[in-house]
Amino acid sequence: MKLFSWTIAIAGLAVWSLIAWIGYVLVDPVLGWVAANAGLLVDSGKGLATATGVGKEASSIVDGLDVSGFMGQAIALLRAILKPAIVVLWAIGALALLAAPMLLPRIGRLLARRRH
Question: Among 90, 75, 73, which residue's Cα sits nearest to residue 28?
Answer without folding.
Answer: 75
